[in-house]
Structure formats: C-alpha cells, structure tokens
Design brief:
14% strand, 5-stranded parallel sheet, oxidoreductase, NAD, 7-stranded parallel sheet, alpha/beta, 34% helix, Hydroxyacid dehydrogenase, Rossmann fold
C-alpha cells in the first residue's frame, strides 16, 4: 500500500510499551523517522499510550508494541476495528497475541532477530569462560596457584547445543568461526543430519549430547515438550566437571536437579534465566561459587535496545510499501518459537 503525502491520509500508529524503556527503544530520531510514514498518536514527542489500552489502540492501524504491552484479546480487538499490523519491538510475541489476532488477519512482526545478536555474543562469551571452568578456578584461587593441568579446565572441547533456533544456529556459526577447534553437537527434533552438517555440527539425540559434551548450552524454545527437558537423568549424563549454560528459558531445566548437581561441585552453571524467575534469595544456586546467575541480561540492554526500535520502524516502512516483513510471525510457526 502506498502512503499519501497528506498527513491526514496516513495510517495511524500507536506505541505501547513500558515507559522506562520506551525512550531508549524509540529515541527521538526514530520517532521522527516513523512520523514521516505514519501519523503517531498521541504526539510524536509522547508516543506511549496511557493506562486504557483498548481506548489507546481504538484508532490504530499499526501497533508498535514492546515490553509491558497488554495482551491483544478479542475484547481489545473489538474496539480496534482498523488495526491491521503489530510490530513488536522486542522478542517473543507469545504473551501478546491471542487467537483473535490471527482470526482478524492482523500481520505480526517481531524484532527477535535484532535481539538475537546480543544473546549470541553473551552466550559465546559464557562458553569461552565455561571451557576454562572459570568459576571453579576463581573460587580455588585463594587456596593456591593451580598447576597447568588444573588450569586447563575440564573437557570443554565438545560443545553441545540444545535447540537449532535462530540463536542456536548463530551460536554454532560463532563457534565454527573461531580457531578453537571445537567439536559441536546439536540436538533438535526438527533438524536433519544434513542441515546439522551444513551448520558445522553433528546431530545427536539429547542423551548422547549430554554424555559427550563438556559444555551444554540451551537454545530451545519453551514448549510443553521442553519443560524440564534437562531433568535429573539428563544432567547426570554430563561428565564430571561439565558446564550447563542457559540463556533460553529457565523452565527447560529442572532447577532442583541442577541445584543438587552444582551443590555437589560436579557441574558448573551459567544461568541468565531461571525457574522461577527471579529465584528466591535463599535459593542455594545464588550462593554457590561454581554458579553464575545473572538477571536475564543476555538480550539487548542499555543502548542496544535502540536496535529493536529501529527494526520495528523498518518493518513499518516495509509494510507500507507492500514488501515482505523480515520478522513476520505466523500462527503456524508461533508454537515452535521462543
């Protein structure tokens, strides 16, 4: 569809997200760029809707959503007859969209690809630390300088990737691009042997991956079938001195089982996500020297969140030109996405 030069003929876009992140996701230069294509409501200098979500989107043709945007229920959509597109300036849209969105034929896009880059970089950094058993080495430093054999860490040569998601694939690419000479295993029920080979990995079942990997990094989506996927039996297969890395979703790992493994000192863990999230202050994982728990910071943070807004603005521009959306989310694909 084309956009008329007359401001009153342009589609109306409404931005709804947490006020504390809105100014960073859509700073003034992005709002100016956006207002060249659509009519921002309210004023472009204050584009974030108030408390009454249904009323805020009543006249919207496009919703630019983000963290804190309420769910698009059938009741909300009934009061937004003009809404045709949702551009989500964040990652997952599972908590945002309802069946009513698909039934109305509303186009949905997510900036998950823009958010993937920081997660990949963070994960690769954790893998670098993990293969050196950094937490264990640091914790033992006060007891004496370790010999070279101890400092060489555990058997981190084989890296297991659980889930060939967009992030999982990019982590594999980062590992293969390094000169560390890793052997990379991947477990994903939707991946073929040939696809894994093209990625630079070997596809195996999860149990074999755990048994053979010095470091296991989780990149699967949270689905009914992946809740507790890394349970006590799977964790027990990871070799002594192995490491678990989770930047995906906390509920994929059995927290109680992981707590037992780490409390014994057998495994290290680097956890950016937990179950529950946040962990209670007295949860043992928070006090263990061989566990690093961070508060869900792997994704875009600080100035990085601007890339999410830029992605959403570019999607609005593509949609107005009638071009395919790079981040389009379909009803059929949603269950398999993070």
């Amino acid at each position: 569809m084309s956009v008329s030069g007359d401001r009153t003929d342009r589609p109306t876009a409404v931005c709804v997200m947490n006020p504390d992140v809105a100014a960073r996701v859509l700073p003034s230069e992005l709002r100016t760029r956006l207002s060249a294509s659509v009519r921002l409501a309210p004023d472009p200098e204050d584009p974030y809707a108030g408390e009454n979500f249904a009323a805020a989107v009543a006249d919207a043709d496009v919703l630019i959503s983000g963290w804190g945007c309420p769910r698009l229920t059938a009741e909300v959509l009934a009061r937004a007859p003009r809404l045709r597109a949702v551009m989500h300036a964040a990652g997952t849209v599972k908590e945002l969209v309802s069946d009513a969105v698909w039934e109305r034929g509303i186009v949905v896009s997510s900036a998950a690809d823009a958010n993937a880059g920081p997660v990949v970089s963070y994960t690769l950094a954790l893998i670098t630390l993990a293969v050196r058993r950094t937490l264990t080495m640091a914790a033992g430093y006060r007891d004496g300088w370790p010999g070279f054999g101890a400092r060489s860490g555990g058997d981190g040569h084989t890296i297991g990737i659980v889930g060939a998601s967009r992030i999982g694939r990019r982590v594999i690419a980062g590992l293969t691009a390094s000169d560390a000479g890793y052997d990379i295993l991947v477990s994903d029920p939707y991946l073929t042997d040939e696809e894994a080979s093209r990625l630079g990995a070997v596809r195996v079942e999860l149990a074999e991956l755990c048994r053979r990997s010095g470091a296991v990094s989780i990149h699967a989506p949270l689905l009914p079938e992946t809740v507790g996927l890394l349970d006590a039996d799977m964790l027990a297969l990871i070799p002594d001195g192995g490491v678990l890395i989770n930047t995906a979703r906390g509920a994929i790992v059995d927290t109680a089982a992981l707590t037992r493994e780490c409390s014994s000192g057998r495994l290290e863990a680097y956890l950016d996500v937990t179950d529950p999230e946040p962990l209670p202050p007295d949860q043992p994982l928070l006090g263990l020297p061989n566990v690093l728990v961070t508060p869900h910071i792997a994704g875009a943070q600080g100035s990085e969140v601007r890339r999410l807004g830029a992605y959403a603005v570019a999607e609005v521009e593509r949609w107005l030109r009638g071009e395919p959306l790079l981040g389009e989310v379909t009803r059929e694909a949603l269950p398999r996405l993070a």
